[in-house]
Structure formats: C-alpha cells, structure tokens
Design a protein that fits this description.
Blueprint (H helix, E strand, L loop, with lengths): L1 H21 L3 E5 L7 E8 L4 H11 L3 E8 L4 E9 L9 H11 L15 E2 L4 E8 L4 H11 L2 E11 L2 E10 L9 H16 L8 E5 L1 E2 L2 H11 L18 E7 L4 E9 L4 H11 L2 E11 L2 E10 L8 H16 L6 E8 L4 H11 L2 E11 L2 E10 L5 E2 H11 L4 E4 L5 E2 L6 H11 L7 H5 L2
Parallel strand pairs: 18-20
Antiparallel strand pairs: 1-2, 2-4, 3-4, 3-13, 5-10, 6-8, 6-9, 7-8, 7-16, 11-12, 12-14, 13-14, 15-17, 15-19, 16-17
Length: 447
C-alpha cells in the first residue's frame, strides 16, 4: 500500500511538471499602470496551494499588498497585485524585481511538496517547535533550559493567542556552532522543553518537536496554532465581537460558492495570514478581491472545500469565521514594542528574557534574528498583571541592558507613567524574582 501511495505521488509530481513545461508561468511587472503602486501580474497553470505560494513570496520580501484580484476558476490561475515597499513607494530595486520574476516565472520550481510548507534539511542548526499553554515568564523559562542544555538560539519567532503559545526556534550547539545531531541529547531537549510547557499542570496539552528540517517559520506557526485549536473561544475571552475582525460567510447558491468577506484594520502580511487559514482548512479560492482604504482592509473570497462543496452547515460556517479571526489576531501584538540590537553572544536571549521576567513583564510576541554576529531582537511586552507597562519599569530595564541597546518603539501612550505600583504588580513581581534561574533550580525541577 505504501509503495502504491509513493508511486501515485511521483506520478502526480511528474504530471505537474509536464503541465508546467507545456504552460510555463508568466510574470509581468508594471511600474506605469498605477501612479502609486507597482502592478504584478501572474499567470500560471492552476494547482491547489498556488495562491499561498505567490502571496508568501511577496510577503517574504516585506512588500505591502494594497490591492489584489485573484481568479483561478478552471485550469488557469491569474493574479494581479498592487504592491509597495514599507514606505509606500513603488518597487524600483532591480534585485527585488529580478527575484520576483525568477521566483514566480518560468524559472521557478513550485513542486507538489509546496514551498509554502518548505521543508528541507539543514546542517547549520536544529529546529525546535513548541506549542502549549501561555503563562507569564514562559519564554524566559524555555530559553533558560536551552542555555542549561548548551543550546544557542540563533533565530526564533514566538506567538501567543487565546491563552496558547507557539514557537519555532533554530538552535546550534554552544561549542561547535552547528546543528545538534546526537539522538540522546535531542531526546533530552525535547523532554525538558515539554516539561517546561506543561509547568505545574502536568495534565495540560503541550507538544515539542526537534528536527533538522527548514520550514517557513510564520507558515509553520499558523499550522501549529491551528492544529492546537487556538481559534476555539474560552470562557474568559476578553474580546467581544465589536473588537474582532468582521468576518461574514454566506452561500452563493446560483454559483455554488461560499462567499467570505473580511473587514478589519489593515496591516502588513494580512493577506498572507488569511490565505494561510483558508489553506489550512482545505478551502480552495476560486475568485478574490482585496482592497484597502486608509487604515481599513476589505477582502472577499469565493471558496469551496476541496471536496467540491461550499460551506454546508452553521457549525462549519462558525468554524470558518473563528479560524479566520484567529489567523488575523495572532499577529496583532498586544503590549509595548521593544527592540534590542547588540553583538550576539551565547545566552543573550536567556539573560534578556530573565530581566523582563524579574521586572514583571511577560512577552506576548517575539522575533529573534542573528545576522553577521549581531542580535536583532523585537519583543512585545506587557505587565504580567495585564496593566500597561510602567515607564519606570522600562527605565530600570534599560539601565541594566543599556540605553542605546534597548529601544522603545510605538506610541509613548503605551507606557504608563503612574509611579505607584498596583497590588497585582507587587504580587507578581515578588513571585518572579523569587524564581530566578541563577542556580538553575527550576531547570532541575523539569528534569
């Protein structure tokens, strides 16, 4: 049976390559058609997942997609995107334009394995995936355990949503600077991190995975949180329907589609996030229209499930709505944005998150990168008590880390200047400081 499935997969792959050779994709980039955006047109043979692949390539270049028209009804896929750079300017950099043409045109190598999931082997680092219940100080505990196990975090991205936390980390051996390959050591890393995620509640759901595969980090985070059902509402959910993205799902019976409309605040990577959600739920987008006006975004999708049917029940309609809302909310960062840039060293991430924890701050989202020996980290933090961050707390942290190394981004209004401490802050502050990892007592408790 396994051999037959493998044979069928290979045949499908060869058929797809044949179709692409007979109908090579075509990319046209036009800087004259629109006065305030670069217009990118993509024509290609249609296949499931191709929309996500195209959107992912544009998103990875940090391009802003202001408008889009998508049509893939039948065997042909036609997309038009109006894009700008982060500053709202047309794309004129020849290197970026050539990359788009090469990545989406005849020279591209879309395969049935889907570059949007993008799995390949790496000898440079070991990939660690984590999913579990969120709690104050969790990132500090995870990085402390990794440091104790002599793992250096090179890159990482952490999301939190609806009481859940997910992370994709790339680590190397502290001594060799290469991937960790010893099976026993990998097993110990996995076991200890799983214990960290469970914390004192050993019955809570937590999963860890360790591999040498390279995945698209943000794509993988969406998959992890979707599989963990973070879209399901909890009794203490603080958001009401007025604060959530407006998602409406109705059936268009004469065309046999379900029509999904989304209205929400516009932001970078919004289209990528919604297309990820539809793909994860196994829906096919046949037509779509995306538009932005000022700070608002409007998206309209005509979809069917891969079984060929539109949405068939109220329960399915509710699930589609909640999954799309969750995909949009995951990247909406709560808290104050802090940026750290300094020379990288082993244990840096552990030290920084420990300082946050000892000052009663919890990390709601994090992006950690290392480039040419420099650590470039972004953290979104808030008080563990749920209140806005105190200005004096940030001043205290910057005195320890360095005024020029740690910078506060975003609105000054995000900082709370009231000098007195709330009772909740006092309680949490004492709790965190008493659990310092200086002697790794907590690490031993996870063993």
């Amino acid at each position: 049976m396994e051999m037959n499935m493998s044979f069928s997969h290979d045949m499908d792959d060869e058929y797809e390559k044949l179709i692409r050779r007979m109908n090579p994709p075509r990319v046209v980039i036009d800087n004259d058609a629109c006065k305030n955006a670069t217009v990118i047109r993509v024509d290609s043979a249609n296949k499931h997942g191709i929309l996500l692949e195209v959107v992912q390539i544009l998103t990875d270049l940090n391009l802003i997609i202001n408008k889009a028209y998508i049509s893939s009804d039948g065997n042909w896929f036609m997309d038009v995107f109006n894009v700008t750079d982060q500053d709202g300017n047309k794309i004129v950099d020849k290197g970026i334009l050539d990359y788009i043409t090469k990545s989406l045109g005849p020279e591209s190598c879309f395969t049935s394995s889907m570059r949007s999931v993008g799995v390949k082997q790496s000898v440079e680092y070991t990939a660690i995936e984590l999913i579990g219940s969120d709690r104050p100080g969790l990132l500090s505990e995870v990085t402390a355990v990794l440091r104790h196990l002599k793992c250096n975090v090179v890159n990482a991205e952490v999301w939190t949503h609806n009481t859940r936390a997910a992370a994709v980390m790339q680590v190397t051996d502290e001594e060799t600077g290469t991937a960790i390959t010893d099976p026993e050591r990998l097993s110990r890393i996995k076991t200890l991190l799983c214990n960290v995620l469970k914390g004192s509640n050993r019955s809570s759901l937590a999963k860890t995975a360790v591999s040498h595969s390279v995945t698209h980090t943000e794509r993988r985070l969406h998959q992890l949180m979707f599989a963990d059902r973070d879209y399901e509402r909890t009794g203490d959910d603080v958001l009401d329907n007025r604060q959530r993205p407006n998602v409406d799902v109705v059936n268009c019976y004469d065309k046999d589609y379900s029509v999904v409309t989304i209205r929400c605040k516009d932001r970078p990577k919004l289209l990528f996030d919604t297309v990820c959600a539809l793909t994860d739920m196994d829906y096919v987008v046949f037509h779509a229209n995306v538009d932005t006006e000022g700070s608002e975004s409007y998206q309209e999708y005509y979809i069917r499930h891969i079984d060929g049917y539109p949405v068939k029940s109220d329960a399915e309609r509710q699930r589609v709505t909640q999954c799309l809302q969750a995909a949009i909310e995951r990247r909406v960062s709560e808290g104050l944005k802090l940026e750290l840039c300094m020379t990288d060293r082993v244990g840096l991430l552990s030290d920084v998150t420990r300082i946050f924890r000892e000052n009663s701050l919890t990390v709601t989202r994090a992006e950690v990168t290392t480039k040419e020996g420099k650590a470039i980290n972004t953290f979104y933090v808030r008080e563990a008590s749920g209140y806005p961050v105190h200005a004096k707390t940030i001043d205290s942290i910057r005195q320890v880390i360095g005024q020029t190394i740690l910078k506060v981004k975003g609105s000054p209004g995000d900082l709370k200047s009231v000098p007195q401490e709330s009772p909740a802050r006092f309680l949490f502050g004492g709790f965190f400081k008493s659990r310092s990892f200086v002697n790794f007592s907590l690490v031993r408790s996870y063993s």
